[in-house]
Amino acid sequence: MEGLKTTVAEAVNILSHVEKVREQAIRDSREIIRLTKKVIHSVHVKETDLKSLEELRTKVTDIDDPLMQNMMQDAMGEYAEAVILCSVVMNAPLPSFSELKISPQAWILGLADSLGEMRRLLLSMLIDSKIAEAVSLYSEMEEIYDALMSIDVPDAIVPVRRKQDIARGIMDKTQTDITSAVLMKNMVS
Fold first, then answer.
1. Which contiguous run of DSSP H or E holds residue 99?
2. Is the pTM of this model over 0.85?
3. Domain end: 50, 68, 102, which one?
């Protein structure tokens, strides 16, 4: 058969390249996820780690291979979550997916996950009797939640439905927690 060996050799070369990209994507994903955890933790202990955040941005920005980006969707979602959380805490504008140089899918999933981290911050504020700050953060969460709930695409495009359901639960619980804190404060006053 004419051309068979040549075509197989070309296919093997391409697949060999894909395998190398995959191995690099796995290593880079681990590093990105490690950095996102560090940044998110720093926000929760009220010492936002701007150095790690910048290192994280640089790491992601340096990945310009679309194949590798596609293989790293989970890590890119974690990255979006960390940057969105930091933006909310620092009262900075939320960066778009194009500004972060990630896919819209990863950005949307990171946006959805950021609500859980914001809830944790809000609960800390309530514990510290910072009700006004908690209500302000809840307002930011509502804006994100409303935007998130407006997304209606098949899960094959971006698996957001489950995260929307989780977000609904987070918002309901958080509203209940704020209401309880306000009622308790009024009873004590």
1. helix 97-100
2. yes
3. 102
